[in-house]
Amino acid sequence: MNAQILPCRDDLSSIRTIAGGSVANTIRGLSAGFGISTGIIGACGDDSQGVLFVSNMSFSGVDLTRLRTKKGHTAQVV
């Protein structure tokens, strides 16, 4: 997913949307950056943000066998 952020009216800067949160970022960094075996216990929604979360974490090698997908929205912070 891509988003646009407008620091001022005349300047468009593209940013990339990735799954995260402090714990998720740490787990992904340990797995992808240092090759440490990691996993996450939790839940995400069955929406596009949940699909993004699963995709990003899987790509980084995080074990998602204890991640549940629930109906509804995935929590987000901007």
N-to-C series of helices and strands? EEHEHE
* Distance between the amino and carboxyl termini: 14 Å
Number of strands: 4
| Biggest β-sheet description | 2 strands, antiparallel
Helix content: 25-40%
Mean pLDDT: 84
Work out the radius of gyration.
Answer: 14 Å
Q: Give the neighbour order of strands across the main sheet.
A: 1-2
SS-based structural class? alpha+beta
Residues in β-strands, percent: 25-35%
Q: What is the global morphology?
A: globular
> How many helices?
2
Task: Pick out the low-confidence regions.
Answer: 1-6
Task: Describe what is shown at a glance.
This protein has 78 residues and is of the alpha+beta class. The chain is built from two helices and four strands.
Q: What does this 3D model show about the protein?
A:
The protein has 78 residues and is of the alpha+beta class. The protein has 2 helices and 4 strands; from the N terminus they run ββαβαβ. The strands form 2 sheets. The protein has a two-stranded antiparallel sheet with strand order 1-2. Strands 3-4 form a two-stranded parallel ribbon. Strand 3 (42-45), helix 2 and strand 4 (67-70) form a beta-alpha-beta unit. The longest helix has 13 residues, at 22-34. The chain starts with a strand and ends in an 8-residue tail after the last strand.
Q: Which key phrases capture this entry?
A:
78 residues, disordered N terminus, single chain, two-stranded parallel sheet, alpha+beta
Topology (SSEs and partners):
Blueprint: E1 2-8, E2 11-16, H1 22-34, E3 42-45, H2 48-59, E4 67-70
Parallel strand pairs: 3-4
Antiparallel strand pairs: 1-2
